[in-house]
Design goal:
The protein contains 10 helices and 14 strands. It has helices at 3-16, 44-50, 77-82, 88-95, 103-116, 139-148, 158-166, 170-192, 200-213, 275-294, and strands spanning 21-25, 31-33, 36-37, 58-62, 67-71, 99-101, 119-122, 153-156, 218-219, 224-227, 247-253, 255-257, 260-261, 264-270. The chain has a 6-stranded mixed β-sheet with strand order 6-5-4-1-7-8, sandwiched between helices. Strands 9-12-13 form a 3-stranded antiparallel β-sheet, with helices on one face.
Amino acid sequence: MHQDFFNTNRNNFMEAISGGVAVIASYTAMQRAGDAAQPFEQEANFWYLTGIESPDWWLIIDGSRHKSWLVAPEVSDMHQVFEGSLTAEQAKQTSGVEDVLNNSEAFDMLRDLARKHSVAYTLGDPVGLEHFNFHMNPTAKSMWQRLERTFTRVQDCRQELSVLRAIKQPEEIAAIKKVIDLTIGAFTDIKQRLDEFNYEYEIEAEFGYYFRRKGAKGHDYDPIVAFGKNACTLHYSENDSRLRKGNLLLLDVGARHHGYAADITRTYAYGTPTKYQQEVHTAVDTAHHEIVKLI
């Protein structure tokens, strides 16, 4: 995406919060094991406003002055040698934000803004995730607590951002179409060669290889390659069972690139389908097309 896209998004967001102050934090990297981090995925709202895909950056917005600042993370010399980091100039070029602050300058600015604004907007905790067995990335909560110590009141701005992000711009529609077409290409390729695969993980690997070879970042979510009874587990992700002729294979896979994703599910017969399998497939296919007509 060009920086004009992110400039427009920030301008629209400033209007949505009526010229107020907002501080949005990117995700931080999370440990995988030892000295290795999990593959990094950016917080979607932060990316929407900046285009930056690196961890530990902030965005400060003062809508009353129609001004934005980026805050760069403190990077150790060791990290710089081993991992490298996004430079201030690269961040400016990507986001269209003209000024980059260090942490000390950012804290001074927040204190100054708090003298003029009693309310600061930031991202609140997502709702509806209590049933999932994982921990949230801590940056949103940490930022909320930091702002509570500086401003009179902190307000969640996820609703304002959700309304903006729900209306897709031409660049976004093009990006979504691209990853959908790429995912369809992978499905078509694998369907044509289905008899070549002996294990679920071989199909998972083939999807990943196809996505990367075509320029996508990879899978948007853990792919579901579920053979037979494994498909009864809705988010099955082990993907290690052997394929055997005469049963069905469920594939739920989607490519991801620059924050946009596809999500496609198909069920294929592995080998020659039985009469009953054909009847069920026909019934589901008919229902699907009738429902599409109603949309």
